[in-house]
From TrEMBL:
UniProt KW Heme keyword: no
Species for this entry: Enterococcus columbae DSM 7374 = ATCC 51263
The entry's keywords: Membrane, Transmembrane, Transmembrane helix
Protein name: TIGR00341 family protein
InterPro entries: DUF389
Ranges that cross the membrane: 29-45, 51-74, 86-103, 119-138, 145-167, 179-200, 220-241
Source taxonomy: Bacteria, Bacillati, Bacillota, Bacilli, Lactobacillales
Superkingdom of this protein's organism: Bacteria
A Pfam match: DUF389
Length: 427
């Protein structure tokens, strides 16, 4: 289908636009640096709106469209110019993002970062359709929202920032996953740009009709590269679908079999095929737990082992039991922090880690470690903070620090210190 020409650039005008956009200027570098900082902060703070803003002002799309145009019309000069610009921009982006995350006090991987580390076939489809829309939008003379929309949909900026995070945190898995996502997006945009420019019948810079073998070889190369890029995303998509089905089955089990039970936390260990539930109260007998184990098969969870941890109300615990309970929370928190280096966390764990880091910043000279947990007392859930001080604190120092924490974070109900020999609440 031939595109209307009244609102479109002519072939010559479009080529000139691509040529000019493929150049890199000082203003582009400044804008790119600002966009990288904004995107990195958005990823660090788990702010989707901030990330979208960074994608809108990023100049990364222009050289990618220029590369596709250059390949389509066999323009070696434009290809070298655009490729050089893209390499400089990507290199600068990774450098800036790595520096930001290296010095950032928040070191854990937010959900927005994790989302950029496991590309699937859906990311490939988004990039294909986004690239197709992008070449149409780039050819229009009038201001339109197509190219900005493509920038948001294909998300070129966040994967590069995630690579920077992975370098700063020395996480190879995150780096390869995020780099793969960027390659998917860039390659698919280039591929659809080639197809779009070919459909416009723009004149080529070299005579290729006399070299049919070369043209055929390039088509084969495109097909092979496309297949190689798509295959890992299909494997990842299959894993994601399997994970979604497993989580749905666990949710159905919890809703049906634990409907009248307050679940504090649940986790799934696929490698060990274990389901873990932490629940309030101590009403489950060994026989009840065994019956629940037998019911797993009815929810598509055959082969999984059920582990249930019961927590009594805080008011029912003796001094020694309370101390053991606090110590168990600290040990679990340390295990979660260790696991966080290689695995994903749910939102509640992620929020607890963020809050712990913020509380520690309130008095870094005094606080060695902070653990955030949930307690159950008199039919109410309490937000607990457990402080491990760097030095022995007096009663007044504990009281002042407790008040400071609870004033800054009103959602916290109780603050405890690990050097207590008996149960103590500071208000």
């Amino acid at each position: 289908m031939k595109l209307p020409t009244n609102d479109n650039y002519t072939n010559q005008e479009f080529y000139q636009k691509m040529y000019e956009d493929s150049d890199i200027t000082r203003e582009d570098l400044i804008i790119l640096t600002c966009a990288i900082f904004i995107a990195s902060i958005g990823l660090n703070m788990n702010s989707q709106a901030t990330i979208i803003g960074a994608m809108l002002i990023s100049p990364l799309m222009s050289p990618i469209l220029a590369i596709g145009t250059a390949i389509a019309i066999y323009d070696q000069q434009l290809l070298q110019r655009a490729a050089k610009t893209l390499l400089i921009e990507v290199g600068l982006s990774i450098l800036v993002a790595s520096c930001y995350f290296y010095f950032s006090p928040i070191s854990h991987a937010s959900q927005e970062i994790i989302n950029r580390t496991s590309p699937t076939i859906w990311d490939v489809l988004i990039a294909f359709f986004g690239g197709a829309a992008g070449i149409i939008g780039a050819r229009k003379k009038s201001v339109n929202n197509i190219v900005p929309g493509v920038a948001i949909a294909t998300a070129l900026m966040p994967p590069i920032c995630t690579v920077g995070y992975a370098i700063a945190s020395k996480n190879l898995a995150y780096m390869t996953g995020a780099a793969y996502l960027f390659i998917i997006n860039a390659f698919c945009i280039i591929l659809t740009t080639i197809a779009g420019v070919k459909s416009l019948r723009m004149p080529t810079k070299q005579r290729v009709n006399a070299q049919p073998r070369l043209a055929k070889s390039k088509r084969i190369l495109y097909i092979v590269l496309t297949i190689l890029i798509i295959i890992p995303s299909l494997v990842s998509a299959n894993s994601l679908v399997h994970q979604s089905i497993l989580e749905a089955n666990v949710k159905n089990f919890a809703n049906e079999e634990l409907a009248h039970t307050t679940i504090i936390k649940q986790s799934i260990d696929e490698e060990k095929q274990t389901l873990r539930f932490t629940i309030a109260g101590n009403d489950f007998t060994d026989q009840k737990i065994q019956d629940l184990q037998n019911d797993l098969v009815h929810y598509g969870l055959k082969g999984y082992q059920l582990k249930i941890t019961q927590i009594a109300e805080l008011s029912q615990l003796s001094g020694k039991q309370f101390e053991d309970y606090i110590n168990s929370i600290i040990e679990a928190n340390q295990s979660n922090q260790l696991a966080n280096k290689n695995t994903d966390n749910d939102d509640s764990t992620e929020n607890a880690i963020v809050l712990s880091e913020k509380i520690q910043q309130l008095s870094p000279d005094t606080i060695q470690q902070v653990t955030v947990a949930t307690g159950y007392q008199k039919d109410q859930w309490l937000e607990l903070v457990i402080i491990q001080p760097k030095k022995t604190l007096s009663a007044d120092e504990k009281k002042q620090l407790s008040k400071k924490i609870m004033k800054r974070y009103p959602e916290i109900d109780q603050v405890f210190f690990t050097d207590l020999n008996q149960k103590q609440q500071l208000n």
